[in-house]
Design brief:
Quinone Oxidoreductase, Chain A, domain 1; Rossmann fold; 30% helix; 26% strand; globular; zinc; oxidoreductase activity; zinc ion binding; Zn_alcohol_dh
Length: 351
């Protein structure tokens, strides 16, 4: 099989590898599409490193090719699936208590790491989820980041009457927005990029705020509410976090979803937190339950995720795909492992 191997910062190669065989309890999946996310971009630029060489990629969709002995799930060859490639040891405190997104050993070199940018991958059946064929392989490849957003929103104890504010209209902000609107809730979106705010409007945002031009407090008041019940910060930087503090209301919850550059600091008035009973929390990864819920959302087929696909490249164009993915104006770039995903992109359109 062919695989895309990161051999050093800024350099990938398409290499030949032996096709894996599924072991006990494993499923062999033929990968159709692998989306490039922030982690892959950080690894590609050298901002973050695990080890070299590495076959990276973890936002994947494909079909069942073959099953090993002992698989209990009712998979059949050709079934469309998505993969939850987050490694979990199953033994640490966090795994044993249902918080496997914080697994102490998820980057342990003794466990398989990533591996989605290959034509085939064999993984335990518990990491393989059947998905409706009507979703399509390109949209299905966004199930993993969608599950991260499910985890983020579940940190807030969502309730229908709440007013949600999304700070950042990039891929992750709009995935959050898609979930909130799926549940019929009010959601405002703030960003400094007009084209991304226009995209948020097409995604169903009830109010868009250009924080570079408008005072966010006055903007939400014009939209008919005084403060947000929930603020999800999907944009990096001190300004984004401070905006959340300006707009959150009494009993509100702020989720710091985005990672920030080293050195970013914010100042807090403890009395603001104390008297208004503000909750501040982070969100990292997802659990198996979050992934299962993301598959259910995908199967509803009402999320319009094709609007977040900015381009599709064939496997042999992996270097170019990763270089293009660094453009902050774009959404997801996807590497197609065969021509079927290219044909699909021409059919459904994209960003």
């Amino acid at each position: 099989m062919k695989a895309i191997e990161l051999i050093g910062p800024g350099r990938v190669e398409v290499v030949e590898k032996d096709r894996p065989e599924p072991g006990e309890g494993e499923v062999l999946v033929r990968i159709k599409a692998c989306a490039i996310c922030t982690l892959e971009r950080r690894l590609f630029t050298g901002e973050q490193a695990i080890s070299y060489p590495i076959v990276f990629g973890h936002e994947v969709s494909g079909v069942v090719e073959k099953m090993g002995k002992g698989v209990l799930s009712d998979f059949q060859p050709g079934d469309p699936v998505v993969l939850d490639l987050l490694n979990r040891c199953g033994e640490c405190l966090y795994c044993r208590t249902g918080r496997s997104n914080q697994c102490s050993n998820k980057f342990n070199p003794g466990l398989p790491i990533l591996g989605g940018m290959a034509q085939f991958v064999a993984r335990p059946a518990r990491e393989v989820f059947a998905i409706d064929p009507e979703v399509g392989f390109l949209r299905a490849s966004l199930t993993e980041p969608l599950s991260d957003c499910v985890h983020s929103l579940m940190r807030t104890h969502l309730s229908p009457e709440m007013k949600v504010l999304m700070i950042g209209a990039g891929t992750m902000g709009l995935l959050h927005l898609a979930i909130v609107k799926h549940y019929g809730m009010f959601c405002a979106v703030s960003d400094v990029n007009e084209s991304k705010l226009a995209k948020a409007s097409r995604f169903g945002a009830d109010c868009v705020i250009n924080a570079a031009k408008d005072d966010p407090v006055e903007a939400v008041q014009r939209a008919g509410f005084d403060a947000a019940s929930i603020a999800i910060v999907t944009a990096p930087g001190k300004e984004a976090v401070e905006e959340a503090f300006r707009l959150i209301g009494t009993l509100g919850t702020i989720v710091l979803y985005s990672a920030n550059p080293k050195g970013v600091k914010i100042e807090l008035d403890p009395n603001f937190i104390h008297y208004k009973e503000i909750t501040i929390t982070g969100s990292e990864g997802r659990t198996e339950k979050d992934f299962h819920q993301a598959v259910s959302l995908q199967n509803s087929r009402g999320l319009m995720l094709e609007q977040l696909i900015s381009g599709v490249f064939v496997l042999d164009e992996a270097q170019r795909a990763l270089e293009v993915s660094l453009d902050p104006s774009l959404y997801r770039i996807i590497v197609a492992m065969d021509e079927s995903a290219i044909t699909e992109f021409e059919t459904i359109g994209g960003a």
